[in-house]
């Protein structure tokens, strides 16, 4: 199948591209390297040195003999998106090409607006380009479990049957997102649903939980193929951060009481889920939602697991309850449905001692590279915060080509 991966330079995009290429698909990657610019802007960097995308594509060819086509373009440039879809003729587009961080979107006004303009306009351009030049293509869009928030009822997969005043309907599940980033995914979902209904496009919205993990089968083939693993407060996710904190002897940063429960999954399962969606496309006009996680944990339980495993490796691990920088429920009901991906054949990798142990060991090997001053949270949801960027760094949205 011809598959175009948007955001192909990212933590998930690059491993996805290799995974699909290794399985015989004709893969293209598109990126504008925005994530690398945000890293420079915030003075953060991934734990391991990451080769450029050009070099990774070359290394992939050298190691496997397989070609991944590379497109450098900004999704906010409609002309480029349309031309690339027309030229590459994808049967599936996997869309990771968005600003992915909740804290980033909460730093200040400029970054909140940027996150929504960037994410929504990019996705809208992809939808219009599909309508114009690739109407049969399947859009596999990375959404988030965070679109639902933490309601006091079970979370269904995208839609819920409601009975009201004696009448019934199946309606989009209510959304209560927890940041301007998560809200950008909510707004995307509405736009995609509308495009499927009106233009008869087809799409799978993958409402993914928090991803953890360092390695996939393909990243292990060569150090140049590794993916960018973040541990800073803006781009690092909870479990990845806890592993790094344990490795360098900083108390694990549990925000508030730590009863915040989320769906989690290993990076290898992300790749399999995306593959399952691609291999089982929806009908023309169909918009479907898969919840994409394998297990639920609260953050304190995760911290305790990391402490236990760390101590087995001889690390002295402490847990610290920090004042929660986010506005979120710290004790709540959480029961999301996970059915559709299991029905398609997903066999989850559980977060076992073995998995955690190998993650901790890999992180320990790179511990000397860790920048300790980018770990503690400074971005606050209530607007009261320390400066995250130097006051002189007034923020201006980068212009897209053709703006
Ligand atoms: N948390 C801590 N300590 C930390 C970091 C996080 O207690 O050091 C807590 C947060 O307060 C939150 C939970 O852990 O309650 C998850 O936070 P996170 O930073 O791991 O994940 P989040 O900001 O929700 O975003 C991440 C990805 C995002 C994806 C989302 C899925 O960055 O792209 O959409 O996970 S979900 O969480 O299901 O919405």
Key traits:
7-stranded parallel sheet, single chain, disordered C terminus, binds sulfoquinovose-uridine-C1,5'-diphosphate, alpha/beta, Rossmann fold, 403 residues
Residue windows where pLDDT falls under 50 for at least 5 positions: 399-403
Share in β-strands: 15-25%
For the biggest sheet, the summary is: 7 strands, parallel
Give every kind of bound small molecule, once each. sulfoquinovose-uridine-C1,5'-diphosphate
Question: How would you describe this protein?
Answer:
- This protein is an alpha/beta fold and 403 residues long.
- It has 12 helices and 14 strands.
- The chain has one domain (2-374): NAD(P)-binding Rossmann-like Domain (Rossmann fold), CATH 3.40.50.720.
- The protein has a 7-stranded parallel beta sheet, sandwiched between helices. Strands 9-11-13 form a 3-stranded mixed beta sheet.
- Helix 10 (299-312) crosses helix 12 (353-365).
- The radius of gyration is 20 Å and the shape is globular.
- It binds sulfoquinovose-uridine-C1,5'-diphosphate.
- The site of sulfoquinovose-uridine-C1,5'-diphosphate has 22 residues, from helix 8, strand 10 and strand 11.
């Amino acid at each position: 199948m011809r598959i175009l991966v948007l955001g192909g330079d990212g933590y998930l995009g690059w491993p996805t591209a290799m995974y699909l290429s290794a399985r015989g698909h004709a893969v293209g990657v598109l990126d504008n390297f925005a994530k690398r610019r945000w890293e420079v802007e915030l003075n953060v960097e991934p734990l391991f040195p990451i080769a450029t995308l050009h070099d990774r594509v070359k290394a992939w060819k050298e190691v496997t003999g397989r070609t991944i086509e590379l497109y450098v373009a900004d999704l906010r440039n409609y002309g480029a998106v349309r031309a690339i879809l027309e030229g590459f003729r994808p049967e599936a587009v996997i869309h990771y090409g968005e600003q992915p961080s909740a804290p980033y979107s909460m730093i200040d006004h400029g970054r909140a607006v940027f996150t929504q303009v960037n994410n929504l306009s990019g996705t809208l351009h992809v939808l219009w380009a599909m309508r114009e030049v690739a109407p049969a293509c399947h859009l596999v869009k990375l959404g988030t479990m965070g679109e639902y928030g933490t309601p006091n009822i079970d979370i269904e997969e995208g839609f819920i049957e409601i009975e009201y005043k004696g009448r019934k309907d199946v309606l989009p599940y209510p959304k209560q997102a927890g940041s301007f980033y998560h809200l950008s995914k909510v707004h995307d979902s509405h736009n995609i649903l509308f495009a499927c209904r009106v233009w008869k496009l087809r799409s799978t919205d993958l409402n993914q939980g928090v991803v953890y993990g360092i390695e996939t089968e393909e990243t292990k083939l060569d150090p140049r193929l590794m993916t960018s693993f973040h541990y800073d407060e803006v781009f690092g996710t909870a479990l990845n951060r806890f592993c790094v904190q344990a490795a360098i002897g900083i108390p694990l940063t549990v925000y508030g009481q730590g009863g915040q429960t989320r769906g989690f999954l290993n990076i290898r399962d992300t790749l399999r889920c995306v593959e399952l969606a691609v291999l089982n496309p929806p009908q023309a006009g169909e918009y479907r939602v898969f919840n994409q996680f394998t297990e639920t944990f609260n953050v304190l339980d995760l911290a305790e697991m990391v402490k236990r495993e760390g101590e087995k490796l001889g690390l002295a691990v402490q847990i610290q309850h920090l004042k929660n920088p986010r506005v979120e429920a710290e004790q709540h009901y959480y029961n999301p449905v996970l059915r559709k991906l299991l029905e398609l054949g997903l066999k989850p990798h559980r977060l076992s001692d073995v998995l955690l142990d190998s993650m901790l060991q890999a992180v320990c090997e790179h511990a000397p590279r860790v920048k300790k001053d980018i770990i503690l949270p400074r971005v606050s949801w209530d607007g009261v915060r320390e400066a995250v960027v130097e006051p002189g760094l007034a923020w201006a949205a980068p212009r897209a080509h053709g703006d």
